[in-house]
Every structure is written in structure tokens, then in C-alpha cells.
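Support request, priority: normal
Reporter: lab tech (M.K.)
Component: structure prediction queue

Hi team, I submitted a job for Glycerate kinase from Vreelandella arcis yesterday, and the status page still shows it as pending. I've pasted the exact input below so you can check whether something in the sequence is tripping the parser. The sequence length should be 378 residues. Please let me know if I need to resubmit or if it's stuck on your end.
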Amino acid sequence: MHILFCPDSFKDALSAEDAAHAMARGAQRAAPHLRPLICPLADGGEGSLDALIAATGAERRHQTVQDALGRPRLAAWGWLAEQRTAFIELAEASGLQSLAEHERDARHTSTYGVGQLFLAALDQGAEKALLLLGGSATNDGGAGILHALGAELLDGQGQALPPGGAALANLATLSLEGLDPRLGKLRVEAAVDVDNPLLGKRGASAVFGPQKGASPADVQQLDQALGHFADITAQVLGHDERNLAGAGAAGGMGFAARVFLNATLKPGIDLLMQQTGFSDLLAEAGLVITGEGRLDGQSLAGKTPIGVARAAQQQHKPVIVLAGSLGDGWQACFDEGVTAAFALADGPMTLNEALPRTAELLESRCESLIRLWQASRP
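Reply from support: The job had stalled in the queue. We restarted it manually and it finished. Here are the results:
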């Protein structure tokens, strides 16, 4: 019996790889001869780099870059030599989790460090890059990455703009002449876990700015600044992508990836499944077990368990989701191919009590599930 274990990470508790192995250990207690198929996954947000490295055997490399506030930070990236492919996770350079709560200021944070990771990949000879968007501390529309890669963003006096999205309101000149010429031969795919446009009520500033430290006044200021940036960009390039689904991902990095790097934007879970050979493993499996920290109605927007369930549904494979918690609207997941879903807690407990027990709880739930699965089979 082959069972595919393909969870996302359980935030603040386990990586996707550790979660998959915990699931497999529990299942093998119930079925010692079980052959587990391990495929850690992610949806393009934090943890996607770890999942890709675990699934593909890519080399983990490190580069000193600027964090979202311009301080030195050692950031990881992945290098898959046989495919000349770099895995670049935005959150490694410009992530929200690396900033203390009082440091979060969406007006001034920058994606400059992400551009430095691109330069490291180009120096290595990358022909393709997978850009993993999500978990950003930024709202600069990708202006930082442009600066790092050689573009000039100048104000009306011909001075370079300071870092951050708010400064884009003063953009007068956008010059792309200095962009690294190697970018012309680099194929870029960007993994997005949201479908928001750049601007407006569903845009980067309004939806994600508050969690990055933006006040209501800041949100209005940032949205207007990004709108001005989009206007200038359209004048320079001759086309306008502000309404593209996913343009608002990672504070507008989806927009920058599309218009300046000619990237293809894909749902993160689809890109991760493609890169990790998920479909081949799914074909072998008789049962699929996935999971993440929380399953709710918002998971339908492209989170890992739903991406897995939709793929499995096409092959008529049952899917069980194990989640740290089940939130409002989680039952809608049944319409997407989920067979059953369970929360991990085995009794009343706080989040702080549950987090260190996540591996233990995953093992226990999988052991019980496989015992039930075996009993139900002829």
C-alpha cells in the first residue's frame, strides 16, 4: 500500500519535510510494511524554499544581503545545478518574520535584498529562476529589486529615491538602461499564493499593508504611490499590468516580476507540485494525506491542501487533511476534493501548548487514520 504524505509546513512548529516524516512514522506504526511516499509542499509563501530543496535535492546556498530595513542578513537560496535553476524565496531576504513587530513599517521596507539574491543566481549561471512570493515585509512594488539589478528611480531633482513604497509618490524618472543584461536570458516563474491586483480595495496596500505596520492613512498613501509607479511604468514600457491577478502579491512584487522580469505568474501550489514531481507520486498512491496549520474557507484561494485535493480529485484519489485547527468555512473544502479533515488537538489546549506537540499529534492522528483505513478495506 502506497500512501502519499504531502503537507505544507505547520507554522512555528514543523517544516513541511518534518511534518511529512512525522505523518509517515505514525502511519507505519499501524502498517509496518507501508511504503510512504514523501513530498513536502508549500504554496509559494514562507517554507517554499525548504520544501523545494527537500523534494529536489537542490543545494542550499547562502548570500549576505540587505534585509527589508537595509541591514545585513544571511539569506538562503537554492541551486539545482542540473537544471541551471535558482530557487529564490522573497521572505529569506525581505520577510516579515525577520522584523520585530515595532520595526514593521510598510512605507519604508524594501525588496533590495531580493535583487541581490538574483545577482547571486546570475553569477552562478542561472538560466531559470523560481521566485517564491509570500511572507514579505514590503509594499514597494518591487522598486527595491529594480534598484539592486541596475535600474534608476529618480525624483524630480534627479536624485535616487530612498527605499520603500511611500517614496514612489515622488518618482519622476524610471530608467531601465542599466538593468543587468543577463536578465534578458533568464526565464522567471513567480509563485503567488494570492490573486489580488496591485491597487484598490483588493490591492497590495489595502489587504496586506496593515499586517506590515501600515495605518489606514499609510494604506491610502501607499496605494496612491503604487498607482503613480504603475502610471510611470506604463509610460516607459507601453503596457499596463496593474490589474493582473497576482500583481498585488508580496507588496506588488507580482507586478514587478511580470512587467520587469517577464515572469510567468503561477499559483504557488501548482508550481511547487510541478517542480517536485508530485503528479508521478500521486499516480502511485492509494491514499493522500496532506495538511497545514489551519484549514478554513480562505484555504480555497490556493493553499496547499486544496491544491493537493484538486489534483487528487482528477485521479479519483481520496485525500485526508490534518490541520492544526479548523476555522470558519472549512467544510467548503469538501467541494474541492477533500474526503475528510481533522484537527490535531487531542484535548483542550492552547496554541503554545500545541506547537511543541505537533509532531507527536501528527503521528498519533496518522496511526489512527491508517488503522481505520485498513479496517475499511476488503
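The chain has a mean pLDDT of 93. The domain at 48-269 is CATH 3.90.1510.10 (Glycerate kinase, domain 2). Let us know if anything else looks off. Ticket resolved.
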